[in-house]
Amino acid sequence: MTNMDSVSVRVFSLNCWGIRYLSKYCPQRYAMIGEMLCKEQHDIVLLQEVWSEKDYLFLKKKLASCHPHSHYFRSGVIGSGLAIFSKHRIRDTFLYRYSLNGYPYMAHHGDWFGGKAVGMAILNLGSLTANVYVTHLHAEYSREKDSYLPHRVVQAWELQQFIRHTSTGADVVILGGDLNMHPQDLGNRLLRAYNGLQDSYLETAKFDGCENGMTLIVDNPFISKKELVPFEKGIRIDYILFKGSSKADVHCDSMSTTKGSVPNHPFPYSDHEALTAELRLEPRTPAETGSDRQSKNKDSATGKLAELVDIVTEARTEVKVGLHCAERMRYTAARTGVMGLALLFLELVIAAVPYLALGAEQPFPRTSFYLLAVLCFAMLLTTSMLYIFYTMELKSLQEAEDQMRLGIGSLQEKLKGFRLAQLHNPSRMPPEVQEPGAFEPEE
Amino acid sequence: MTNMDSVSVRVFSLNCWGIRYLSKYCPQRYAMIGEMLCKEQHDIVLLQEVWSEKDYLFLKKKLASCHPHSHYFRSGVIGSGLAIFSKHRIRDTFLYRYSLNGYPYMAHHGDWFGGKAVGMAILNLGSLTANVYVTHLHAEYSREKDSYLPHRVVQAWELQQFIRHTSTGADVVILGGDLNMHPQDLGNRLLRAYNGLQDSYLETAKFDGCENGMTLIVDNPFISKKELVPFEKGIRIDYILFKGSSKADVHCDSMSTTKGSVPNHPFPYSDHEALTAELRLEPRTPAETGSDRQSKNKDSATGKLAELVDIVTEARTEVKVGLHCAERMRYTAARTGVMGLALLFLELVIAAVPYLALGAEQPFPRTSFYLLAVLCFAMLLTTSMLYIFYTMELKSLQEAEDQMRLGIGSLQEKLKGFRLAQLHNPSRMPPEVQEPGAFEPEE
User: Which family does it belong to (chains A, B) (predicted)?
Assistant: First the structure.
């Protein structure tokens, strides 16, 4: 702890829309991104949808002098698409793969093929240890009929679990990425409330960027108006979140987004807007720790805890909806499979007739016979694969639901203790609830 | 911190060998296990290979009064097989799925189909917070030609990463399970050295059980001698590991294993032996923390850190071997696929001859034509699936290798700082290296 001065950290986050040969002007945009990052020299750069390792290597080479430290998170078939570049030495990295990520047969949505995950990098910022997370959750294709909602809620749950359990030793937590959730969406509230993460757009002292901090806007030439309906102007789904600790306070001094175009360039960096947040980390002296915060936040803590219980309960309900849906789908797959098997059996019986009753004519035309057999086999194969897939989906949903049930129980227990303590001795709080918005069991 | 007295905790671990209809005497053995657990009343029961949820529910019902708290970790198609039962309230659970777990086409080994994972449960033991982990790594089928070694090393790496990053806030860490590694195997050394975990068999004051603490023994009637060659007497692959913290010391007062049979029963609980460790947790007063330990362990710290660098380097080499192997396999799959495609093309050309040169005879007998086409399609399908699988394997191996490279860099940096500090001021250590065997970057 040599340096107790405040540290200023500039964090950048961008969904690069980097599908080679499919995303428009991919190489040109990477060149633009590389140039801009070289010029801007952010401390931490968090990128999503860098689907091709070649593009990562291009950036790595380009940023070698300004961002000597980097990590590309590999997972799944295509990769996680996540990358981090840093001015500061990366001490350690770790990757958590979400258990659910859409359906393989929804190939046109493509999410399943990318190994959606959350990447963690641990680095030193001045005297402080920062846990930096980068992630990209499952896209929302329809606001009205969002069949992926349970998956996204489970991803948000796993994200908050991963951050909460891995950041106990961190002085500062920073999370950047494309959450694919509106600010007040369930998963977002879950993430912020459970971990006490703060939204740099809401906390910033100074803001320069799109209206309402939107990151998917109609002014972006890569965006079609249809995609945004019913949010004509745009939506905010990319975030830089942060959190301090007993060792450091974090403030957001300024925050900005790109605005759908880049001066002197014919098109923007991506279909998403880029985010930049300037965070000020203020190491706390041991004396500051504890008492002042405790008294300051005493009143709101019970309320926040109760709110958190409500949010987790809501999430659990959503996961239960997903469970019922997956169960129904698995049942349908099983029924269809059994029908295919019955059909195959019937066909075999009919085919066997001439052999059993010697001399009888083969009742089937040969071609239809083969065609039907192939159909039956295809049906059986498809339904068995679907059955296996839905079984895995069910297991993951059940696991999340179970974790949530436990979590709610612990929170309620804490709330009870908390209310009792308030009742008996309103001036003193039990130590585990001193910090509202950060209800880690480890505290 | 109401209670500063030491707490005694009895931990139980067993690989239940619970494959319904395949494992011998499965229901009878579960009944025996349930009875024994009811009688023994361990504080924490860690079970592996509870493949059927029905069996978990049977145990849950049976143990409802003595172990009111439990969690079944669900993952993959069949499940993770992991379960925890506890006398003490489970506050929180979390699951990490290993990125690699064998090959789906090695169906007779079956590991791939179980969603191998590490489960975490957080509970209070007296005034202390304990992070309890249960896991089961990929089996070793051949000691001489162990093609799964890179997978197991990556699993051990991910296990140590998961424990290290999630246990920063824990006062006590307990890990139980079937690691499928001998005591001096690479993965085991990696796990123990990086996290400073201690082996209860090696640390126990009193031991009662099989020779050398073996858990897979020839005296067990479910074990065939062939499986154990060249270790005629048996091997030790199940463990209960533990670790204290600055808030608590942990000692192992006694440790025992079953010995291949159960009195008054015709067969043992499982093909593995069961482990029981009695741990004594001693909360430390704040005054104790620091100085005494620091001086006691000063000399060995540099050595241990250097040893850790060696171990991680060795692990990295093993992962690189796996990388080369996976690359070769992927190349073979691609080549075979291309051959299948060429064959299909050739066939189509030959089949097209009669249509192009009108009047010419169909050169192919009909049946062989269809058979060959089916063969080509099967070849294409299989090789594409293999190609995708090997690509995923490669990504996971590369990710682990990258994490290891970073880890080695950080450790070497620490070692350098450490040696410099020793050189300049041999009586004082830099604070981050006060605790040998626990080189968490978060410290």
Answer: Belongs to the neutral sphingomyelinase family.
Q: Which positions in chain A touch B443 (Cβ < 8 Å)?
A: 169
Q: Which of A 378-417 lie inside 8 A of B, CB atoms? A: 388, 391-392, 395-396, 398-399, 402-403, 406-407, 410, 413
Specify whether the CB–CB gap between A193 and A311 falls below 8 A. yes
**What is d(CA A294, CA A433) in angstroms, rounded to the nearest whole number?**
9
Query: Is residue A116 within 8 Å of residue A103, measured between CB atoms?
Result: no
Q: Answer positive or negative: Cα dihedral of B408, B409, B410, B415.
A: positive
Dist. CA B64–CA A295, nearest whole Å = 42
Nearest Cα neighbor of A170 from A197, A200, A204, A136 is A197
Nearest to A99 among B75, B392, B443 (CB): B75
Record: contact A169-B120, CB cut-off 8 A: no
The SS3 assignment for B140 reads coil
Which pTM does this prediction carry? 0.90
Q: Which of B406, B410, B415, B432 would you mutate first to test chain A, the one with the most A CBs within 10 A?
A: B406
**Residue ranges in chain A modelled with pLDDT below 70:** 1-4, 287-299, 357-364, 426-443
Residue A76: which of B79, B92, B395 has the nearest Cβ? B395
Task: Say if the Cβ atoms of B71 and A166 lie within 8 Å.
Answer: no
Smallest Cα–Cα separation from B215: which of B162, B270, B277, B174? B270
Long-range contacts of A142-147 (CB under 8 A, 24+ apart): A143/A230, A143/A231, A147/A325
With both helix axes pointing from N to C terminus, report the angle between A53-62 and A26-40 in degrees, rounded to the nearest 10: 30
* B281: β partners: B7, B250
Separation of alpha carbons B185 and B140, rounded Å = 11
pLDDT, residue B44, reads 97
How would you class B368 by CB atoms within 10 Å of its CB: exposed for 0-12, middle for 13-18, buried for 19 or more? Answer: exposed
Cross-chain residue pair A402–B442, CB shorter than 8 Å: no
The residue written with tokens 């049942």 in the block is A331
Find chain B residues with C-beta within 8 A of A89's C-beta. 413
Residues of chain A found within 8 Å of residue B169, distances taken between Cβ atoms:
168-169, 440, 442-443
**Is residue B97 predicted with pLDDT exceeding 70?**
yes
Place of tokens 């290891």: B404
Question: Between A and B, how many residue pairs show a Cβ–Cβ distance under 8 A?
Answer: 120
Secondary element (H or E) of residue B437: none
Chain B nearest C-alpha distance from A9 (Å): 20
Place of tokens 């089996």: B139
Greatest alpha-carbon pair distance for chain B in Å reads: 101
Q: Percent helix, strand, coil in chain B (nearest 5)?
A: 45, 20, 35
Does residue A160 contact residue A311 with C-beta atoms inside 8 Å?
no
Cβ atoms A77, B392 nearer than 8 A? yes
Give dist(CA A267, CA B341) in Å, integer. Answer: 41
Phi, psi dihedrals of residue A210, rounded to the nearest 5°: -65, 155
Q: Structural domains in chain A?
A: 7-285 (3.60.10.10), 309-356+366-424 (no CATH)
Contact B372, B343 (CB under 8 A): yes
Q: Is the pLDDT of residue B98 over 90?
A: yes
- More confidently predicted of A292 and B39: B39
Q: State the sign of the Cα–Cα–Cα–Cα dihedral A74, A75, A81, A84.
A: negative
Nearest to A237 by CA among A223, A250, A221, A254: A223
